[in-house]
Design a protein that fits this description.
Blueprint lengths: L5 E7 L12 H5 L2 H11 E4 L4 E5 L8 E7 L20 H21 L6 E8 L19 E8 H6 L8 H4 L3 H8 L1 H9 L6 E3 L18 E4 L9 H26 L12 H8 L3 H16 L1 H6 L7 E6 L5 E5 L14 E7 L1 H24 L4 E2 L9
Parallel strand pairs: 1-11
Antiparallel strand pairs: 2-3, 2-12, 3-4, 4-6, 5-6, 5-9, 7-8, 8-10, 9-10
Helix pairs in contact: 8-10
């Protein structure tokens, strides 16, 4: 069978929400009013830390699909002032959030034990406020949330190949910017970070054979598998990778913006940045190239995410190992497309209704386990009760 990205159709039930006249949909979706609807119609569980588990009304997969959002819509009314990445979350909240992640991933791997049958992933994305709210591609809910998704591989095998020039798969050219011009310095920089549970994968060994993705991204095997997710050390290393990525990204685009710029403030690994980046000719020559193009190509310059933008996820590879990867996401590919799955959502209430009972049954079982672990209390909606 030919390897390549696949495009699947995922039916959904149209959402009966009226966007006020004069507002763009993604402006409304950032509002407290919309989040209130999300809680009341799709909420599964919430806790005092402000973490909300909910059913994805516009999901990626009807096999299994849920999210946790750090719901600050009532406490931080400015959408641009809300936490949008793990490093901005208060430690007590992150502690609970990590435990919720561990419980849900463990359930997914228990329920979907065969890597030949299903593609399992969990991860989150940057939602940085680097574009106007009305710009295409700006996240519809500018609050930190993550995804837990399972795809049936039989569906992927029969799905048509996706267009490899889809900008969400190519990352708008920014992905190749890192890989083509700074591949070695990028890997050398990460090699300088102290990791014990996460072990770098050999190139190509972590790819999903069916799709051929992820492509070119540095990846790390979680030594110890799902059991390692119960160790706080793992989650600290998961954050460490993100901090390293943020340092690299900020250092690079500060050089793009201003020739010979000083090291950005609040760098996590200043010695690594100084020794591996700011004295590296390939790194600085690439910044010069991008800076020159920005000066002469307004469309290119407008597309750049000047602040760190990324997708970070845990997924299971074909050998059944858990892998962590992080994208250099300057444009905006969807989290599933990092693994070569393009989701085409289509309104079809009848098709969704056929998949809904099995999906809800699993989500309620996940909720039961979270409640049992003292990670929140159930929410009653018109579709399910609170217990």
């Amino acid at each position: 069978m030919q390897s390549g990205p696949r495009e699947i159709v995922t039916p959904f039930r149209p959402i009966p929400l009226d966007v006020p006249e004069g507002m763009a949909p993604n402006e409304f979706f950032n509002s407290a009013e919309n989040l209130n609807d999300l809680v009341n119609n799709n909420g599964l569980l919430q806790n005092p830390e402000g973490l909300l588990l909910y059913r994805k009304a516009l999901g990626h997969s009807n096999e299994f699909d849920t999210s946790i959002i750090y719901n600050t819509s009532q406490s931080i009314l400015d959408p641009l002032g809300r936490p949008v990445r793990r490093t901005q979350v208060p430690e007590p909240v992150k502690h609970v959030w990590n435990r919720m992640n561990q419980v849900i991933v463990e359930y997914m791997l228990e329920r979907y034990a065969d890597p030949d049958e299903t593609l399992v992933l969990a991860g989150e994305a940057s939602l940085d406020a680097t574009w106007p709210l009305t710009s295409p591609g700006v996240p519809s809910i500018r609050m930190l949330h993550n995804h837990f998704i399972v795809f049936n591989k039989a569906q992927l095998r029969t799905a048509p190949l996706a267009d490899i020039n889809n900008p969400n798969l190519t990352d708008g050219g920014q992905h190749s910017l890192f890989q083509v011009y700074m591949r070695e310095v990028y890997r050398e920089f990460f090699a300088g970070i102290d990791l014990q549970i996460l072990k770098p994968c050999e190139e190509g060994s972590c790819r999903i054979a069916l799709t051929g993705y992820p492509q070119g991204l540095p990846s790390w095997e979680i030594q110890g598998g799902v059991a390692a997710l119960k160790e706080i050390r793992f989650w600290k290393e998961y954050d460490t990778l993100l901090k390293g990525f943020i340092d690299f990204y900020r250092s690079f685009f500060s050089q793009v913006s201003t020739r010979n710029a000083a090291m950005p403030r609040d760098i996590y690994f200043p010695d690594l940045v100084e020794n591996k980046l700011l004295f590296n000719n390939d790194f600085l020559m690439t910044a010069k190239m991008v800076r020159a193009r920005c000066i002469h190509d307004a469309k290119y310059a407008n597309a750049i995410r000047w602040q760190p933008a990324f997708k970070q996820l845990i997924y299971r590879n074909d050998a059944g190992k858990l892998i962590v990867t992080i994208s250099q996401n300057s444009i905006g590919n969807a989290i599933t497309e990092l693994l070569g799955v393009v989701v085409n959502r289509k309104p079809d209430a009848n098709a969704y209704a056929r998949a809904e009972p099995a999906l809800i049954e699993q989500l309620l079982e996940v909720r039961r386990r979270l409640v049992e672990a003292d990670l929140g209390e159930g929410i009653a909606t018109p579709h399910w009760d609170a217990n």
